[in-house]
Prior knowledge:
The complex is a heterotrimer of chains A (about 240), B (about 260) and C (about 325). Chain B is mostly helical and about 260 residues long.
Amino acid sequence: MQELITVEDVTKKYGNKTALGNANLKIEQGEFVALVGMSGSGKTTLLRMIAGLEQPTSGQIRQAGQVVDSINTNARVMFQDDRLLPWLSVRENLTFGEHSKKDITEADSLLNLVGLDEYADVYPEKLSGGQKQRVALARALMSHPKLLLLDEPLGALDALTRLNMQDLILQICRKRNFTTLLVTHDINEAVRMANRIIVVKNSMIVRQVENPYQGQDSVDAEAKQTGIVNDILHTIYEKD
Amino acid sequence: MEETKSKNKINSILMQLLPWTIPVALIILWQIAVDVGWITSSFIPSPLSVLANGVSLWKSGELPKNISISLYRALVGFAIGGGLGFILGFLNGVSKVMRALFDTTIQMLRNIPHLALIPVVILVLGIGETAKISLVAIGCLFPMYINTYHGITSVDPHLIEMGKSYGLSKYKLFSKVIFPGALPTILMGVRYALGVMWTTLIVAETVSADSGIGYMSTNAQQFMNMKTIFLCIIIYAILGKLSDFIAKTLENILLDWR
Amino acid sequence: MKKKNSVRKIFILGLVVLGVLVAFFGWKQTQDSTSKSLKKVIIGYQAGDEFDISKTRGEFVKKMKKAGYSVTFKEFQNGAAMMQALANGNIDYGRMGDSAPITSIAAGTKVTYVAAGGTKALGSGVVVKKDSGINSISDLKGKTIAYTKGTTSQYMIIKVLKKAGLTTSDVNLVNLDQSAASVAYAKGKVDAWANWDPAIAQAEVTENSKLLINGNQSKAYNRSVIVATTSFAKNNKSVTKAIIKYSNQDMQWANTHHKKLIAMMVKSLKLNKKVVTKMVNRRTYSMHAMTKARVAEFQEIADVFYENKIISKKVSVAKYTQYVK
Lengths: 240, 258, 325
Ligand SMILES: Nc1ncnc2c1ncn2[C@@H]1O[C@H](COP(=O)(O)OP(=O)(O)OP(=O)(O)O)[C@@H](O)[C@H]1O
Ligand SMILES: [Mg+2]
């Protein structure tokens, strides 16, 4: 396995406040890693630094050996809010108005993948919340990025839609061999989807848990998954 | 089923006619009031006599000439002022250096009622076409500037961040994210500037002109030619409504995503 | 939905194209067709005045062209606007009433009287309604009189009141512009109105009014003058001469062709024929170079204005006069 992302002694401070302290992390090609932790623990901060939207106060982040020191266009972020452009049709949101045949074909096949081919020509206004998130997912997958960064993309969805979207994302990521970092505060979600779970607490990475039961839904595997969830919950709520 | 459909159609036609009932009723009332003698026709001429006056002025070639000259001044002034306002608003919206350089000055100038500049404009540019067009341009510049600037600076920063993160080129970022995001506000500026365009033009044409609708109106005023005064008022109303209609339809076409 | 939009697009596009075409037509009309080799002379005038007659008749421009001058006429709504254009050098000559230059000269504008025309004396003065009970100027005591500040009517009021042995505090003066005054007078909001033709003639014809005192009686003659910027006048005596000569020829024509003149003015001023006839019949047109007598006449205005604190500086008219001969 090849190493894609290296986070080395990274600290991020806003003024005097440490948002993330001395973080070290490696993500390998093809991995699906989840980042969990309480609100304000520094998850988004780490993700935004990997995306190059924020620079570390000290330390270094590398992607495939290259230092990330400006906007990282080799990574695609799927934000918590869909951030679709309301003045472009669903297809144009994927292609950013590009009319080349190649782009349009790819956009249409991705829309087909997320089950929205009929909606290619409508404006995002006309879509439901879950449909918008699926468009945002398809947009993030355009031209097969080396790294997918998902920041609580399903936070705003109802439980049932959420489960469907989890399946969809996982299925796509495995089938197309994406490397993915998923930020979530839902530990069940993390354990269902990721092969490794990283726990952030008080601005520090405190634990990394391997999860051999990723994506499995047999009764036995689900019991094992629940065990891991409880273990992680214990870490998070444990008194220092 | 069929019946409700046709009923709906009649309803929608009625709804479209509704805004016109009051103006039409007023005009009819006005005509009656003059005919019966409730108001003196030498002060307030009847709508029909105003119309007849319009027809005779049209036939003599005076009306088409003055309308076309006013339209020329209005459009050129709007193009120059609106264009300049857009460019300045755009530059200041995207560049911090430009903003620091220009914004304070423009905000200061903006607060001067532009009609107060008439003496200065006459002093610098004389009384020819340039002066009149410049006045219209100054009038149109500020609403376009303010709205363009405001539109561009208030585009959702999250969308801009998304665009950058998705590797859009500067041009793409502008044409697909910033400009469409600012467009509703910019079009509001266009509508407002069109209104200012007409009001400024009337005043500009009263300063010293020998043509244009504003000239026709002041000239008529001097000799208490009420029919022509009313005609000019009506022409302004029509031109104003027409340009507003164009702007509104433009909004509907360009902002069909809303 | 899409189809409706494209119909609308075409419609709007058509409207915009039409607008641009009409505007282009307008632009063409604003372009001067005068040739470039001639010396340009720009003359300011007001509707219905001596130059308006010349402009409508057409002879003046032709004769000036032969003499080597290309004349452009610019119309103004009042003397004040014309003075401003003169001060800025936007026009070379301006035709106005006799008192407008006085206030401008006092304010520091550098203009020169170059010619004087006929008066409107018989058509200038104070009008009252016939049934108002005002039969002589002394009856004006306690009445409300409309006038327009900065115009000859201000001078007129002072002269009339003096003649009646009254002062400005014996009457109620209201300063209204022409159109406001005419409505106020017609509606009976003011008892008397100091003004001149065609407004006076119109009041007489349509408002059952009479002229209480005219300009010859009040000695406020209301004479036409031509002024030029001082520097232009100094360097262009021959232009001034030509203007006076050809303008006077038109004036003589006007005096002998009342029928044509009346028809012309009815059309250009859009006034009732009765009103125009009354106005034309009591007026003698002329245009001459300045004389000592004229200077004395205008000096009187300057002195009265100074005494009444309408201007704050003494003006010596002779200093601002050019005698071409
Ligand atoms: N731009 C900023 N300026 C100042 N402080 C910030 C900024 N962004 C984040 N912080 C602070 O850094 C800390 C970590 O924030 P971060 O957004 O990474 O939390 P999070 O783990 O993503 O929380 P949540 O689950 O609520 O999204 C928080 O205490 C927050 O207040
Ligand atoms: Mg967060």
